Amino acid sequence: MKPMYYLACFSLVFVWLFTGLTSIFFAPEVGFEILAKAQITGIYADISVYGGGLLDIFLGVWLITQRKLKLCCIAQIATIFIYSLLLTIIDASFWLHPFGPVTKNLPILVLIVWLYQAEGTS
Question: pTM score > 0.90 for this model?
Fold first, then answer.
C-alpha cells in the first residue's frame, strides 16, 4: 500500500500547491471575476483571492510534512466543502461547467477520505 499512499499524498499536494500558486501568481483574475459575480470587489476580493491561495499552499505544505495527517485531511475536506458551497452560492452553473471545477471535488474528497483511513497503516 505504500506506493499508492505516497501517490495519493503527492497528487493532493500537487493540487493544493498548483491551485494556490495559480490563484496568487498566474491567474488571480479568474478569482476576481468569480467574486465580482457576487459583488465582492476591492479589499474583500483581494483578501478572498490571495487568502484562499495562501490557504491552498498551506494545505499542500502541511500535507507534505505528514504531521497530524488526520487533522490535515479534515482541514482539506472542510476547505473543499466551503469552496464548493461558496461557488454554488455565487454561481450554481459551475456544477454544469464542462471542465468540472466543482464536480471534480467529489473524487478529490474520496481520495482524502482514503488517505485519512490509510493513515497509520502505510
Answer: yes
